[in-house]
Amino acid sequence: xxxxxxxxxxxxxxxxxxxxxxxxxxxxxxxxxxxxxxxxxxxxxxxxxxxxxxxxxxxxxxxxxxxxxxxxxxxxxxxxxxxxxxxxxxxxxxxxxxxx
Length: 100
Hints:
The chain has helices spanning 29-36, 40-48, 67-87, 92-99, and strands at 26-27, 55-57, 62-66. By secondary structure, it is mostly helical. The chain has a domain at 26-88. Strands 1-3-2 form a three-stranded antiparallel β-sheet.
């Protein structure tokens, strides 16, 4: 995207698409960050912390996340969030019960 004052927005608006129209099997950490709407540093922290499985490829050891691993991570986060919401209810009734 080109802004009127000349600055360029280097963020992608969507994950990359292969020539055949599909999403590539392996994503860069920048792609992962875009999908999750987080910073690349946060994506790197997820990988280095072991929360998101990834591989290092090439001579420079660049990180790649398989698309299926990202989907597995997202599914796990939905389950973790459901558990959190169930175990930490939010609402007026809960605060009244705690006041009693």
